Amino acid sequence: MSCGDPHETECGEVLDHLYEFLDNEMAEGDCAKLRVHFEECSPCLKQYGLEQAIKALIKRSCGCDDTPADLRSKVLARIDSIRAGQRSGEQVVVSVEASVELHAENARPAPKPAKAGAGGEPVERPGAPVEAGAPAE
Description:
mainly alpha, 2 strands, two-stranded antiparallel sheet
């Protein structure tokens, strides 16, 4: 995305680092560059506001849920792997194996449709755990 106007920091670079900025994971000098850009660029400021609102909604709706330790370690290992690939100049391919649909009214995952059993009858599995990395249904 680009607004078409020239900026000291390009729109693409700002948006690439938006979550680092939102999560306070950037050096102060880099944060200052993004703040200046937001003052000059209304499309990026709008995107920043949207992402900030989404993070706040997720925190309010899901903030009390604990992340399973094994899932957390797998995600962190994958992030480290991607970052290492980026530093070495390798092409990094990220695949998404499953998706979660959120209900707008309560930001919880949508119920999955029932699977058919051997005789075609639905097999109910409410609340069945799904292992991280398992193929999507």
